[in-house]
């Protein structure tokens, strides 16, 4: 359990910085907007309606939506801090705006008449009467916004912004419950601490003890400032960021890469849990320096190709394309393939006489498909269906771990497994053959950001990994992390893999 | 206090105020109030008396006509400057609940950028409240004390004109009586022009030099208290005078019967 908490301070700092920046921006927008619209009923309805609408969008989707929006705008980072900040700011608006508007509308009319009667200017009325009287109500709204923002910030992991969500997502993927617990406990503690301090500030304002409010807000400001310390640390060129998508193999390979870079004298950070589309964008923009992707993924998603060439030719074509269009270097292949592979329980496959995708297509109306979260939306699935017309009785997406569980428990009859997955051998699954070659090759490839292409120390540290990882070794390392008992951490599996490589 | 120079005169010139629908709240009122006068505006609810009063400090904007103070149109100056020269006291007082008594009283000076000095203490003396309540919050005061603070706040910037809108309406009879007396004394001592809206004819007759009776937005009587008591002013005014007179007569009968 103590190991699970090792990354908490670093991630909690990033988490706090993000949430407080979003909260501050939310206050800066909602408070003036609230004052402006409080006495304009139509404007107040529109503003509150918009803020309520934002709340109905699931926060995960809200974060994801900013990625294409920022890409479309161009010239700003579409990943990491900025999209997280914008989404969380929108999320923070409603409670603050609502409390400013209702607070102002609920002010005793006699007090406003007195303010007018003694000859206050509009600005004096705002500053001396309205602001201090609505402050406690607004403070309550800010507390709500703070708790919401800190909670939702865990989801920023998915758009490449480190947060306590890193622990939760990694823990969920590898079924490492101590990690999930560590992330949840830390996020909850952060929310409770900020809420308690804001509550203290509110109490201070209500009871006319302004110093109390200043002390409480000062602690929050100081903590946020301290959390931003990594940002103003100098020496940018020796800091590298290793990216990873959201499954065990990626976590292990990221640690393997990170360890080698650290040995070469770099300071290493990780961006875990990136979505497929997000990861390539991140390396192209330089938000991450290096990560492992799979040939078929780039081939179908980024290049939008549907043909299936021989694997070496495919990798060469990809290297050309990434260099030409995004200045991303393909350093080489790692040696194993992680292809989409349809897998069934051995006994079930024998009983139904299914050995190939052709056989599967014939039986599909009686079968249920379990897939990973993205497969049903991916071009590979479309390609498979073009080659082997199949129509399942039911198709359900699962996170990878639960997908294998669904197959084992009989809730799914066939799954979209991964060929490097240790559970294929461990669970005695049958991988169905692809006689028409509908699924392209999925060689693991190292992609390097434009600014690292000419960094000889960097590429030199990574070259020994090329062609060094056999699919057997990768499966075993994956299984160490994925199995249900005696689980290893991705770090431990990476150490084991490094010894196997022996370079 | 410069009692030798009386407060300003106030003149209404064809004031009409219409709200969205229905008959006008104030219908073509023209009259002049001499400087230093204590005028009571009396009428039943909805007669337009408060609306007429508020056209002076422009809390109400007339639909037609204009108001002048000492011959100068009230729209000639910036609004805050106009209002800072007029004391305004109203039924709900409107003390600022987040400020202490001292801060409430001093606020008109602060917003005008004037020095506060010992004005808070002097104003508390003037409205006959102990100086040691200065540090308390309005919530800790009784209704009568709060209205005294309202008067102190209205007078702290030395206005020469005081507008009062049902100032004693929410007070118990004892407080009402003593505060009415205190306000009248202040009016005389400071040489103010005072215009007070009230629905209580007895209060008007006891405090004012001149009583204006309003009904349905119009002035229906404009008399001195003596003339009203002598039966002048017409039916509407006499109907209002009849109430305190009837009460007084009944009290006399009760006393005689013992």
Automatic annotation (TrEMBL), chain A:
<keyword id="KW-0812">Transmembrane</keyword>
<dbReference type="GO" id="GO:0043190">
    <property type="term" value="C:ATP-binding cassette (ABC) transporter complex"/>
</dbReference>
<keyword id="KW-1133">Transmembrane helix</keyword>
<dbReference type="GO" id="GO:0031460">
    <property type="term" value="P:glycine betaine transport"/>
</dbReference>
<feature type="domain" description="ABC transmembrane type-1">
    <location>
        <begin position="12"/>
        <end position="198"/>
    </location>
</feature>
<feature type="transmembrane region" description="Helical">
    <location>
        <begin position="47"/>
        <end position="66"/>
    </location>
</feature>
<feature type="transmembrane region" description="Helical">
    <location>
        <begin position="133"/>
        <end position="156"/>
    </location>
</feature>
<dbReference type="GO" id="GO:0022857">
    <property type="term" value="F:transmembrane transporter activity"/>
</dbReference>
<comment type="similarity">
    <text>Belongs to the binding-protein-dependent transport system permease family.</text>
</comment>
<feature type="transmembrane region" description="Helical">
    <location>
        <begin position="211"/>
        <end position="232"/>
    </location>
</feature>
<dbReference type="InterPro" id="IPR051204">
    <property type="entry name" value="ABC_transp_perm/SBD"/>
</dbReference>
<keyword id="KW-0813">Transport</keyword>
<dbReference type="InterPro" id="IPR000515">
    <property type="entry name" value="MetI-like"/>
</dbReference>
<protein>
    <submittedName>
        <fullName>Glycine betaine/carnitine/choline transport system permease protein OpuCB</fullName>
    </submittedName>
</protein>
<dbReference type="InterPro" id="IPR007210">
    <property type="entry name" value="ABC_Gly_betaine_transp_sub-bd"/>
</dbReference>
<dbReference type="InterPro" id="IPR035906">
    <property type="entry name" value="MetI-like_sf"/>
</dbReference>
<comment type="similarity">
    <text>In the C-terminal section; belongs to the OsmX family.</text>
</comment>
<feature type="transmembrane region" description="Helical">
    <location>
        <begin position="12"/>
        <end position="35"/>
    </location>
</feature>
<feature type="transmembrane region" description="Helical">
    <location>
        <begin position="72"/>
        <end position="94"/>
    </location>
</feature>
<keyword id="KW-0472">Membrane</keyword>
<dbReference type="Pfam" id="PF04069">
    <property type="entry name" value="OpuAC"/>
</dbReference>
<feature type="transmembrane region" description="Helical">
    <location>
        <begin position="176"/>
        <end position="199"/>
    </location>
</feature>
From TrEMBL, chain B:
<keyword id="KW-0067">ATP-binding</keyword>
<dbReference type="InterPro" id="IPR017871">
    <property type="entry name" value="ABC_transporter-like_CS"/>
</dbReference>
<dbReference type="GO" id="GO:0016887">
    <property type="term" value="F:ATP hydrolysis activity"/>
</dbReference>
<dbReference type="InterPro" id="IPR003439">
    <property type="entry name" value="ABC_transporter-like_ATP-bd"/>
</dbReference>
<dbReference type="InterPro" id="IPR003593">
    <property type="entry name" value="AAA+_ATPase"/>
</dbReference>
<feature type="domain" description="ABC transporter">
    <location>
        <begin position="10"/>
        <end position="241"/>
    </location>
</feature>
<keyword id="KW-0547">Nucleotide-binding</keyword>
<protein>
    <submittedName>
        <fullName>Carnitine transport ATP-binding protein OpuCA</fullName>
        <ecNumber>3.6.3.32</ecNumber>
    </submittedName>
</protein>
<dbReference type="Pfam" id="PF00005">
    <property type="entry name" value="ABC_tran"/>
</dbReference>
<dbReference type="GO" id="GO:0005524">
    <property type="term" value="F:ATP binding"/>
</dbReference>
<dbReference type="GO" id="GO:0015697">
    <property type="term" value="P:quaternary ammonium group transport"/>
</dbReference>
<dbReference type="InterPro" id="IPR027417">
    <property type="entry name" value="P-loop_NTPase"/>
</dbReference>
<keyword id="KW-0813">Transport</keyword>
<keyword id="KW-0378">Hydrolase</keyword>
<dbReference type="InterPro" id="IPR050093">
    <property type="entry name" value="ABC_SmlMolc_Importer"/>
</dbReference>
């Amino acid at each position: 359990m103590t190991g699970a908490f090792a990354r908490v301070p670093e991630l909690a700092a990033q988490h706090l910085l993000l949430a407080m920046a979003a909260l501050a921006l939310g206050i800066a927008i909602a408070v003036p907007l609230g004052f402006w619209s409080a006495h304009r009923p139509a404007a107040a309805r529109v503003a509150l309606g918009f803020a309520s609408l934002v709340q109905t969008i699931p926060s995960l989707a809200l974060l994801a939506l900013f990625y294409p929006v920022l890409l479309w705008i161009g010239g700003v980072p579409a990943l990491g801090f900025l999209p997280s900040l914008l989404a969380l700011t929108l999320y923070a608006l409603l409670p603050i705006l609502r409390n400013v508007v209702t607070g102002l509308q609920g002010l005793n009319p006699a007090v406003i008449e007195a303010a007018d009667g003694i000859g206050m200017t509009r600005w004096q009325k705002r500053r001396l009467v309205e602001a201090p009287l609505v402050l406690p109500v607004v403070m309550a709204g800010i507390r709500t916004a703070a708790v919401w923002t800190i909670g939702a910030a865990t989801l920023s992991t998915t758009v490449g912004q480190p947060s306590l969500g890193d622990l939760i997502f990694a823990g969920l993927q590898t079924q490492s419950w101590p990690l999930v617990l560590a992330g949840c406990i830390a996020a909850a503690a952060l929310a409770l601490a900020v809420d308690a301090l804001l509550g203290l500030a509110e109490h201070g304002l209500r009871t006319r003890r302004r110093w109390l409010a200043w002390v409480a807000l000062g602690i929050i400001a100081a903590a946020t400032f301290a959390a931003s310390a990594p940002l103003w640390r100098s020496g940018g060129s020796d800091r590298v960021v290793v990216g990873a998508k959201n499954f065990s193999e990626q976590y292990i390979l990221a640690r393997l890469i990170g360890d080698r870079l650290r040995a070469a004298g770099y300071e290493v950070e990780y961006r875990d849990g990136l979505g497929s589309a997000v990861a390539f964008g991140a390396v192209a923009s330089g938000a991450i320096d290096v990560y492992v992707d799979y040939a078929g993924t780039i081939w179908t998603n980024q290049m939008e190709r549907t043909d299936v060439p021989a694997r070496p030719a495919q990798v060469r074509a990809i290297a050309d394309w990434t260099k030409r269009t995004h200045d991303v270097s393909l350093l080489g292949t790692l040696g194993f393939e992680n292809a989409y592979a349809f897998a069934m329980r051995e006994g079930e496959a024998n009983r139904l006489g299914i050995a190939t995708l052709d056989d599967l297509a014939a039986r599909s109306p009686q079968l249920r498909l379990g897939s990973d979260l993205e497969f049903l939306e991916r071009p590979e699935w479309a390609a498979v269906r073009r080659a082997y017309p199949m129509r399942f009785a039911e198709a359900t997406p699962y996170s990878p771990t639960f997908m294998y569980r669904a197959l084992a428990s009989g809730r799914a009859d066939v799954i979209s497994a991964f060929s490097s997955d240790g559970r294929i051998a461990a669970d005695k699954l049958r991988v169905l053959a692809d006689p028409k070659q509908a699924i392209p090759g999925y060689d693991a490839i190292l992609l390097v950001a434009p600014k690292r292409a000419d960094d000889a120390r960097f590429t030199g540290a990574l070259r020994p990994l090329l062609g060094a990882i056999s699919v057997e070794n990768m499966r075993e390392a994956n299984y160490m992390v994925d199995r249900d008992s005696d689980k290893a951490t991705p770090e431990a599996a990476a150490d084991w893999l490094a010894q196997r490589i022996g370079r | 206090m410069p009692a030798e120079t009386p407060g300003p005169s106030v003149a209404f010139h064809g004031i009409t105020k219409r709200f969205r629908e229905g008959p006008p709240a104030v219908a073509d009122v023209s009259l002049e109030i001499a400087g230093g006068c204590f005028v009571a505006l009396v009428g039943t609810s909805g007669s337009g008396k408060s609306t007429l009063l508020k056209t002076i400090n422009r809390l109400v904007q007339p639909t037609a006509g204009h108001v002048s103070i000492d011959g100068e149109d009230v729209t000639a100056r910036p609004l805050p400057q106009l209002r800072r020269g007029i004391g305004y006291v109203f039924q709900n007082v409107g003390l600022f609940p987040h400020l202490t008594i001292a801060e409430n009283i001093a606020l008109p000076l602060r917003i005008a950028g004037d020095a506060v000095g010992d004005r808070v203490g002097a104003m508390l003396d003037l409205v006959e409240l102990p100086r040691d309540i200065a540090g308390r919050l309005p919530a800790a005061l009784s209704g009568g004390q709060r209205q005294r603070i309202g008067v102190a706040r209205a007078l702290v910037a030395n206005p020469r004109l005081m507008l009062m809108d049902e100032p004693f309406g929410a007070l118990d009879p004892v407080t009402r009586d003593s505060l009415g007396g205190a306000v009248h004394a202040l009016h005389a001592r400071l040489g103010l022009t005072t215009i007070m809206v009230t629905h209580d004819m007895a209060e008007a007759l006891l405090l004012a030099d001149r009583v204006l009776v309003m009904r349905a937005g119009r002035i229906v009587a404009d008399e001195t208290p003596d003339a009203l008591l002598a039966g002048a002013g017409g039916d509407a005014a006499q109907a209002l005078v009849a109430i305190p007179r009837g009460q007084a007569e009944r009290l006399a009968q009760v006393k005689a019967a013992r």
